[in-house]
Amino acid sequence: MENIGHGGKEIVERIMPKDAALKRLAEMKAAKAKVLDVRLQLATEVIDIAYGFFSPLEGFMTKADVESVCNNMTLADGKTVWSIPIVFDISDDELKKSGIKQYDEVLLTYTGNPFAIFDVTDIFTLDKKEVAMKVYGTTEDKHPGVKRTYEYQDKFLGGKITLINPPKIKEPFTRFWLTPKQMRERFKEKGWEMIINHQTRNVPHTGHEWLMKGAYLGAYGSMMVDKPRGGVLVNAIIGEKRAGDYIDEAIILCQEAQGKHGYFREDIFLTTCSLWDMRYAGPREAVFHACLRTNLGCTHHMFGRDHAGVGSYYDPYDAHRIFNKLPKGSLNITPIFNLDWWFCPVCDEVTYMGLCGHKDKKASFSGTLIRSIIQDGVKPPRRIFRPEVFDLIMECAEKYGFGSPFVNEQYLKNRQPVFTIEPLK
Q1: pTM for this prediction
Q2: Widest pairwise Cα distance in the chain
Q3: Which of 36, 115, 290, 337 is the most exposed place for a label (fewest CB within 10 A)?
Q4: pLDDT at residue 225, rounded to an integer
Q5: Is 213 strand, coil or helix?
Q6: Do residues 84 and 290 touch, judged by C-beta distance below 8 A?
Q7: Strands annotated E in 179-219
């Protein structure tokens, strides 16, 4: 087998060839198959399932899988680690109106265009409060993941999906969106044997840059240096946005700029994106990220302070500790745990918490500080932001963000979509 992903399973793309898809669509229309038009979140997860980003999942989870994920952090097989439910919700009214029953074959559409076939094998309910507590560790709806859970409709459909109409990825994301199989091919072309993933939903300051460089140095030290044998993969999360988040275009283009301007050699640096709506599940999302990046072909994954956290719901290093709770060998990826990077005026450099002895003098790269620098629009010292990166943040604000690099109502309403589904013909 080739392209072995998470759980030791081969990554299989669940995508029907175009001729077969056109024929199947005609058959379903003739048979008056049931049709559901899905929202963006569900369309995104259909794509992730179909291309193997969520391998070994072949579709949306059944009740048995969801309960096992919540209670045991494994799929229903009891072995495969999985930490966040992937579910397809539907209202009682829509379920009744559509007439969908167990074992029906349903045509999914997105923006009215044929998209995927959903083989429904389970229809069930969930205690959403219990799910929230077990996945997020809280039932407070101020937590964005809990809020999302409470907003789910009352019923859920489980079963396999097959994509019949691939998405059209829009600029500027086109060159960054690589499927797991494409990602692995790119690594082969580069001759990389070691791939260290950097998970991000931010524009990069020098603290991020050194987080990546420190992880690279630590992991690469055991390899021969006669030629480049590994690199850093920046896999940016592109998905649902909240007011105040960085706009997607700035995230992906500014991450790429670090290689284009020589802060990393381009032969050891690659920027890509994955479609995912952040759940801000802290330690559980850290495990999910490890599964996702295993499917991309990564050998290592860095986890920093407060990885995938939000507010004060998690201890800053809960996302490190959770890996001690997983069975040995259950993940085929090596975690790299990072402490803080900060600027030290005594050392006169960006340095590492585990090395620097001037903690009382540190200047932390806090989110509040970085945002205030960007909002001021005055180019900061290059010790904080590389000038090319900062200039690009400002350019992206004007070109994509309606004057701001941060998500606002105008951006949410009028932004260019990341992908579209075109008519199938």
Answers
A1: 0.95
A2: 75
A3: 337
A4: 72
A5: helix
A6: no
A7: 194-200
CB 321 within 8 A of CB 283: yes
pLDDT digits (tens, 9 = 90+) for 256-290: 999 999 999 999 999 999 999 999 999 999 999 99
Residue environment code for 334-348, b if the CB has 16+ CB neighbours within 10 A, otherwise e: ebbebbbbbbbeeee
172's tokens: 């500027």
- Give dist(CA 96, CA 254) in Å, integer: 47
Q: Identify the sign of the CA torsion 381, 387, 390, 395.
A: positive
Domains of the chain: 6-166 (3.10.400.10), 174-420 (3.40.50.620)
Q: Closest Cα partner for 252 from 368, 191, 170?
A: 170
Mean confidence (pLDDT) of the chain: 95
Mean pLDDT of all residues in 232-249: 94
pLDDT at 367 over 60: yes
CB 228 within 8 A of CB 267: yes
DSSP string, 3-55: SB-GGGPBP---B--HHHHHHHHHHHHHTT--EEEPPHHHHHHHHHHHHTTTT
Q: What is the DSSP string of 355-377?
A: T-S-GGG-EE--HHHHHHHHHHT
- What CA–CA distance (Å, rounded) separates 380 from 205? 11
Choice among 14-23, 105-114, 135-144, 239-248 with the minimum mean pLDDT: 239-248
The total number of residues written for the chain in this structure: 425
> Which H or E element spans position 163?
strand 155-163
